Amino acid sequence: MKIEELHHIYKSCKSVCTDTRKLQKDDIYFALKGDNFDGNKFAKTALENGASFCVIDNPTLKNISESFILVDDVLIALQQLANYHRKHITYPIIALTGSNGKTTTKELIYKVLSSCYKVKATKGNLNNHIGVPLTLLSFTKDLDFGIVEMGANHQKEIEFLCSIAEPDFGLITNFGKAHLEGFGGIEGVIKGKSELYNYLKENNKTAFINTDDKTQIEQIGNYTKCSTFGSTDTNDCVINFKSANPFVHVSYNNLFIESKLIGNYNYGNIAVAIAIGQYFKVLPDKIKNAIEAYEPDNNRSEIINIKTNTIILDAYNANPTSMLAALNNFKQLEADDKKYLFLGDMFELGISAKEEHQAIVDFTENNFEDNIYFIGENFSKTKTKSSTQKFSSFEDLKIELKTTAIRNSTILIKGSRGMALERILDIL
To answer: Which of 402, 390, 305, 304 is CA-nearest to residue 341?
Structure first.
């Protein structure tokens, strides 16, 4: 079937679905395959549950129903359909990537632009080779903007996602030590994330550049189609960091903006949302209100009060750069009570894992006196002081905490998603 025909069928359906458990009546179902599942096996169920059409790549199913659409590869068909649909979108597409803060930044941009325009953005963190196509296919013709988050853990992935989404505007939140195993070190991270800049340059599209970040300046080079933001008066949008104790406060256009985000590392995320708002003529008061209204969730820099304790829950993900930023922020945080640290393993570091985990241990022990807990196989193998507590698994930590009374304390919980350290909340 030609992509034009598939697009015509897609437009007659309610939405795109890849999971029969979430399927709605009149959806078009794409039978994707993974390492441990084959969506083709659920195509008949999808039809029984109300799907209008099912896109499959198992020829033996073709004659079961006229509503089955046979393609060579369902994933490729999904990606091609998304790109074909994108070519029919007339409003701007804003793409963003980076090592840290992508989802928070995406939500901030969405809040700011939504104060004046009809906008749709990536849901959650659906930012990969499947998530980006699904995001694009959720964009209807009545929008003013589409925001696409792009994630990557190896070279050429951002380049591929750009070829699907064809963004008109782009930004990189930062370059950090994330997914070192796939990228092959920090230089590989910089090269991989900068594939977004390469696309913008090659297609004469606009980049939003944080001039307070030297790496961004270096990677964009002498490209002139940029909208700059930062703390100096030479920028198109001037934003100044004021404080982060614990919440980030910035000044912009003679306005004092008080966010509900903690840590000075969130300054850049807030700043780019302000800059994009200004670029697209959102009034300063509306920008301020949108930033101040945003509240983090899903284990991302949340402040939670449990009994007598104040908890900073930043357990959605972790890498050496974000871990160090969180620790620096926690160190500077004014607190009258005790401070506790619960730090979990950082994943996808490859051969750098031992070195990076030891570096975090050394920094932590040099800056915090006691009440330090490290959790995970990597941290359990590090060299620590006798007062530092290490646990190879969460279950071992759980046993310890059941006999430990933590009261009147400020607590930082941070680790990679696979560690699921938010479980500590139930114990506390």
So the answer is: 390
The 3-state DSSP class for residue 144 equals coil
Q: How many CA atoms lie within 13 A of 138 on its CB side?
A: 17
Shared-domain flag, residues 260 and 227: yes
What the block records as the tokens of 310 is 């104040």
Which helix or strand (DSSP H or E) is residue 266 part of? none
* CATH for 9: 3.40.1390.10
- Cα 338 from Cα 134, distance rounded (Å): 46
Please state, in angstroms and rounded to a whole number, the distance separating the CA atoms of residues 90 and 292. 31
Report yes or no: 421 and 415 within 8 Å, Cβ to Cβ. yes
Measured between alpha carbons, how far is 415 from 122 in angstroms, rounded to an integer? 24
Q: Whats the size of the chain, residue-wise?
A: 428
As to burial, measured by CB atoms within 10 angstroms (0-12 exposed, 13-18 middle, 19+ buried), residue 228 is: buried
Q: Position of tokens 């890849």? A: 18
- The amino acid that residue 203 corresponds to is N
Which residues form the domain of 125? 89-293
Please list the pLDDT of the chain residue by residue as tens digits (428 residues): 899 999 999 999 999 999 999 999 999 999 999 888 999 999 999 999 999 999 999 999 989 999 999 999 999 999 999 999 999 999 999 999 999 999 999 999 999 999 999 999 999 889 999 999 999 999 999 999 999 999 998 999 999 999 999 999 999 999 998 898 889 899 999 999 999 999 999 999 999 999 999 999 999 999 999 999 999 999 999 999 999 888 999 999 999 999 999 989 999 999 999 999 999 999 999 999 999 999 988 778 889 999 899 999 999 889 999 999 999 999 988 877 899 999 999 999 999 999 999 999 999 999 998 899 999 999 999 999 989 999 999 999 999 998 888 999 999 999 999 999 999 999 88
Identify any residues that bridge with 209 across adjacent strands, giving them in sequence order: 228
Please check whether residues 131 and 44 belong to one and the same domain.
no
Residue type, 422: E
- Exposure string of 110-144, with b = 16+ CB inside 10 Å and e = fewer, is bbbbbbbeebbbbeebbbbbbbbbbbbbbbeeebe
- The answer to whether 109 and 117 are in contact (CB under 8 A) is no
Number of structural domains, the chain?
A: 3
Whether residue 307 sits in one domain with residue 280: no
pTM of the model: 0.92
